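Data card: per-record layout.
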Amino acid sequence: MFFSPDTLPRLLLPYIRDRKSLYGHDLSQGLRDPTLPDQGKKKVIVEFSSPNVATDFDGNHLRSTFLGAFVANIYEAMGWEVVRLNYLGDWGKQIGLLSAGYEKFSSDEKLQNGGINHLLEIYAKIEELFRPEQDAREKAKQDKQNTADIEGKGIFAQRDSIVKSLEDGDEAALALWQRFRDITIDELNLGYGRLGVKFDEYWGESEVKPKTIVEVEDTLKEKGVLEESDGSWMVDFVKHAGKKGLGTQIVRGRDGSTRYLLRDIAGALDRSRKFEFDKMIYVVSSRQDNYFQQLFTSLELMGLSDLKQKLQHVNFGSIQGLKGSLLSNILNQCAIGIHDALREEHGDSDIDSDGVGSISDMSLVSGLLAQDMSGRRGHSYTFDPKKIASSSSHTGLVLQACHRVLNASIDKLNTSDVEAAEVDYTALSDDDSADLLRLMAQFPDVVAATYKSLEPHTLLSYLYKVVSSLSILGEGEDEEFEGEGDEGGPSEACEKPSLEEKKAQLFLYQNAQQVLENGMRLLGFPVAS
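The structure for this 529-residue chain is written out next.
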């Protein structure tokens, strides 16, 4: 369809103004039946972030947090009922190992005073102490020797005994586990708050129902899929599914403890019964591609193809250049890097030297998100504060700067006289205004394409085009768009615009701001009020 420069603003701008924050959204996509809205919305569970209790929050967890929040936002914009779920690794052998470390190196008083940092210290110590036993087991495996004797003593035995106590419901073991979990969640919420990320549910491996685990095992045995091997129970995907790349996977160890795959199969069943979802999306690193194929194939082998069809793994590449630590520490590390890069970029020696306090969380999150979403999510990348701080390329800081300048321009134009005037749409018939209007008209299609692909770079690239178009428009009308908000004025050679023409320019900027904000919010960018 082609619109003349005179017609497009008359049609588009009132429409955007009427839709406001809903412009670009298509709520009908999430309806069970678009022809019968009373039948309600479809429900999607988005599982993301998913760190482990009392261990490092690494770059993969950070990227899962960014992308998972985006996926939840885009589904909500399409009318789905969204449940944001953080599935904590709060069970299994790492908790047994942490508890063993607590028995050796800690006490109630030390845990109370030291909090999450003390837990990380305990885990690091017990891991170092445990390493020789692990090396001995690996050597035995390479020599094709039985590892049962090695795993039946020392820290191996202590760890596995604690795991068994937890699964048997031992009160003392569970009380200590609960303290570990609560300390971890309290710390995580501090970091999530800085990112502007919220969860509707905190789930954990611990919450998988024992009766569901038994149900899964019984079904796998009935189907002839679960086989015993050297005291363990496993699934051979090559034999039963004909998928050579999937290999075999143990679901219950020889010590009687459950493994990840068994708990995740049971977890999918539990969630389907609790939430009655239409779709569940796991936002997890591509390093787990093979594992999720095992999970989905297991459901097929159980005769649960209908459930399997509702599940999707949204994967992503890794981030290099970030040291695993607490989420808050990672954010501080990034803030310092961006701070130093900004000083180098602008040569400003007056910037606060501490690095952290001088970078607002808004700038920090915008910079990190823009770098994360600058390419396809399947691509890995290296955290580079110099790219984030650059003013000569597309960055989150440039996006935020454009938003500030746009606000300043709107405030300057928005006088009582202009507000009372009629809109002269012919003032927007120039080529630069027409180009911006065409871009604004494309926004719903861009959002729809982003929803289909779940590739945030599609939407981010579009927003950069809007910023560029606004900058070009500003060069012709006002110097404001050339900098960080310095006030300029119309050229003396230009005829002073009428109130009606100013009203048209105000109307254009207000609606362009709405488009920019809608896109930023979908991606997870903080937006200044």
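Known properties of this structure: The chain is about 55% helix and 10% strand. Residues 349-356, 479-493 have pLDDT under 50 and may be disordered.

See the next section for split statistics.
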